[in-house]
Amino acid sequence: MWENFEARLDENEREGSIPLRRVLFEVLRSSGLRPGAGITKKMVSLEFGAGERLVWEIQNPSNVFLHTKWRDSVETNGFATELRPYQRGMKDGGRHSALSRDWSFGDADCFVVRIEDADSLRRLIAVLLQSGDALMLNPAAITRWIERLRHFFPAFDRFDPPDPHFDEAERTYKLAIAAELRTAIEQAGSDQELADAVNTALAKSNLLQWRAYWPMSPKGDADREQLWPALRALVDAALGAADGHASALEAFVDAWIAAVPDGKPDPARQIAEFLFLHLAPDDGIYIRHSVRQDLWLEAVGSRFPDHASMADTYRDEWRFMQAVRAAFADRGLAPRDMIDVQSALWIVYNYKEEDVATFSREAIEAAMDAYDSYRKSGEHAAIFEAFGEPRDYWVRSTRARPGRVYPSKPIVGFLRSKTQLNGGWGQKADAAAQLHNAGYIIVDADDAPVTPPERYEHLIRDADRIRLCARNYYVEPARENGAADIAIRAGDLGRDMGLRDAFPAICSALGGEKFQKLANVPAPSHTLPNPSSSTVFTYQLASAEGHQTMTFEPMTAMPATTNLILYGPPGTGKTYATAWEAVRLCLGEVAAEPLRGDRDALMAEYRRLAGEGRIEFVTFHQSFAYEDFVEGLRPTTGVEQEGDDEAASTSGGFNLKPHAGVFKIISERARLDTGDAPAKRLDRSRPIYKIALGQRGSQEGRIREGLDGGLIHLGWGGDIDWSDERFDDFEEIRKTWNDQKDPDASGKDPNIEMLYAFRSGLQVGDYVVVSDGRDSYRAFGRVSGEYYFDADADFHPHRRSVEWIWRDDNGAERAPFYARNFRRQSAYRLDPDRIDWDALEAVVIDPNAERPVAGARPHVLIIDEINRANISKVFGELITLLETDKRLGCENEVRVRLPYSGTSFGVPANLHIIGTMNTADRSIALLDTALRRRFTFRELMPDIEELRQAVAARGLDAANLEGIDLCKLLHTINERIEYLFDREHQIGHAYFTGCRSRADVESVMRHKVIPLLAEYFYEDWSKVAAVLGDGDGTNGSHFVEARRLTAPAGFADDELGGDKLRWSVKARFDFSEFAA
């Protein structure tokens, strides 16, 4: 449409040029107004809002016409107007004929505004677009957006009720960040704390690129005295009324430009909109510049207006997002807030085919139902027939069907409404790959499992795949059939999936908490031995409400370094006690004290510390070994980080590399912690790039310019300026080099490969080491600036700024920190597995940098079920290092050389270890003597008083809970257990702390206590009955009852030694013995 518009303009220009005409045309084209239906030689119409029109007289370009309803608003803003009424009975209403057409004003009155220059027209358009009228969006654009949304999320129907896959991908994390941000803002006392809260939220989110908010980060270059007050004002506005957002955004942008060197407005706009969206999701908006430009053009029909004011920019963005929300609502999608709108538009704009969401089990089974209908009646033939006769890549249904095997391509084609797609594994969006990642088993035509290729990283594998397949093929079908429980035999699942010798992995996955959350089941019971192909895991599908663990107070003060084991029978509060001790050790007594007794607050702090890496949790089991706990070797077929071909494996195409276990990981994390002091160490998560600035001796001037000038430079890449953002992409660099320099160059050409590493691979904050030949280096620094092109440079025009951390013209040997020779390449990334950070820091930071700093914060390793593993096998030679006087920095410090990596290792003094053990599983007396010498043991036994307090906290009475005396019940049962068995097998009070009613007590007895007693007494039900008070039968049966078995034919009554009884659990329990 704009082409026709411009053709009319050119026609008038040929007859007589008027400079104002072209100027005003450019303003109109960039304003956000849409070309209307009327385009004549003399006048053209434009549309805005809900069918509003503006008519421009091309022949006399200073004349702009509007409907009379706009007259008051226009005059109020300082414009002079003249009425052009429609006069009935006169031809064309007595005015220019174009003003009375259907595409202009018809028989309605209008008025003319005289426009003198571009600024006047911009002001007039701003008045019109700020009126609050809703934008009219192209319905075809809305339709495409919804189709694209459903393409990537096939189960998506509406925002509310939600699609779990959509929420998990785009919404849940934003809500979590919003909640954390609001809490942090409420707790922030100073401007700096407020800025820290905002920075933390920005860093956790993926909405903004880190470069956008880096100036206000702790290491940024913003003037805090100017910016922090503006940030506080912006936060206050975000928490206030939505009509203040536009002006607050503009004020923050102005402050940003003043406070940030070379500050640009769009990063500040994004930061402001990020806060609006997260703190006011009903009204606040966020949209990326590129998303806004493209989707506005598609839906509105013109380019987004080029406003001089950022407030006006925000108002138009807001109108656009509100219009999209209304359009989605009109189509029945029921968006919950602007987070849904922002997420949907991001998916529409940015998602690629490889981002297709995982299909739900329900959607896949529905597609299989549709394929069955096609087989029977030809229904859905338009899709299914297009795939022809299937040849490979079949998928097994999770339901009992006459034929459980289906061709994968037609099933995915039906789900995605496509008749052409790849059927294999190679891409994430391929049919077999998508079904595999949804937890389905790919098979051949005879239903034999097909092993997925190892080389594709986008395929789920190992424990993740085991959990999904177990849920889809066992748990969910049992739920659909109304089963009360489901038993999964490890060998059966392995056979179904085509796994060999994977029983440890299967048992670990089925017994873990992740599977319980995924499948929404409680912790299972299991048979022994475990792990084994015969191990059976049984899950209750309708379980009673779980109990809440009691609060716990420590009994004694801890030494400086803590090695503690909490032990006792099941249900005595070890979980909560462990969390309390871990948090207390991390925070200190004073800081942790407010959390005592507040379970929710304590666990929230525990999760926060775990998220920071200061608390690690591991569970020991019979197959746990040194290689899992400390370090072992793992095969890898990945290409070496540096891309060398010299390390090709001689053992079947893979290499064995050392892999750190949880103990080594947290020990190193604790050793390297710098506390709250300025960082004394290098960031070991950052890559290091080797850079060559010139040849030693012959090009010293070039080397010196880089070292003295704080920069690195590269000669490869020719005389092309690669600054444009599109060159972040390797393919764009290759394509441009091919187009402009060398059409035959491959991706290995150094002008492409080296340039990409230098310009795009190397990020601000990464490290560079300046080589001095192959065996030494003479400088080490941190990249501080983006790539730039210096057209005036005498050599190497491709440059980046660097902050040198260390330099020495005499150089230092490479070998201590990097065992492989430097390659003769100008720029490449060093293999991270071969970097010895301690040796590097000893040169570039401090000779003693490897030692823990004085302010290092405490870290805690929690070892659950510590008595279930072979301690000597797990700890190996490190058992000695646990002693408090042999920790790093202590008087008797001990280090060992690890067997696989060959690195020197010690345990830092700021690492505390807390273990738990269940005495019902294994007595403390059976523990490894070496371990017992190095740990303090604290017993946790059933505690009636703790039970009483926990129930009282809910406003209930443990001595009379709907007629049951819980205290008496627990005391009596434990007395009998101790008499019949021992004290280590008592019932913990925590089983009953969650009880709120008689039904809860009965459920705990039925599903927890009685099965536990049966296990304790090895299915000797006479002893179970004795513990429950049903042993002698004189007082009737309360919980279990026995029926005498009559001897079958061929047996004398006393032939097998007395009465034979059949025991059963009563359908209804009698608590009369424990009546209040």
Produce the secondary structure layout.
Blueprint: H1 2-15, H2 19-29, E1 34-39, E2 43-48, E3 52-57, E4 63-67, H3 71-76, E5 81-84, E6 110-114, H4 118-129, H5 139-152, H6 164-187, H7 191-204, H8 210-213, H9 224-238, H10 245-259, H11 265-279, H12 289-300, H13 310-330, H14 338-350, H15 361-377, H16 381-384, E7 394-396, E8 405-407, H17 408-416, H18 431-437, E9 442-443, H19 462-480, E10 485-489, H20 490-497, H21 503-511, H22 513-519, E11 525-526, E12 536-540, E13 563-568, H23 574-587, H24 589-592, H25 599-611, E14 615-619, H26 626-629, E15 631-636, E16 655-660, H27 662-672, E17 688-691, H28 700-709, E18 711-714, H29 730-740, H30 750-761, E19 767-771, E20 776-783, E21 788-789, E22 798-813, E23 827-829, H31 837-844, E24 859-864, H32 871-875, E25 896-897, E26 904-905, E27 911-918, H33 929-934, E28 936-939, H34 944-952, H35 966-980, H36 998-1016, H37 1021-1028, E29 1040-1044, E30 1061-1065
Parallel strand pairs: 13-27, 13-28, 14-24, 17-19, 24-27
Antiparallel strand pairs: 1-2, 2-3, 3-4, 4-6, 5-6, 7-8, 7-9, 10-12, 11-12, 15-16, 17-23, 18-22, 19-20, 20-22, 21-22, 25-26, 29-30
Helix pairs in contact: 1-2, 5-14, 6-7, 7-9, 9-10, 9-11, 10-11, 10-13, 15-17, 17-18, 19-21, 19-22, 20-21, 23-25, 29-30, 34-35, 35-37
Pfam family, one: AAA_5
InterPro entries: AAA+_ATPase (IPR003593), ATPase_dyneun-rel_AAA (IPR011704), Methyl-DNA_Rec/Restrict_Enz (IPR052934), P-loop_NTPase (IPR027417)
Protein name: AAA+ ATPase domain-containing protein
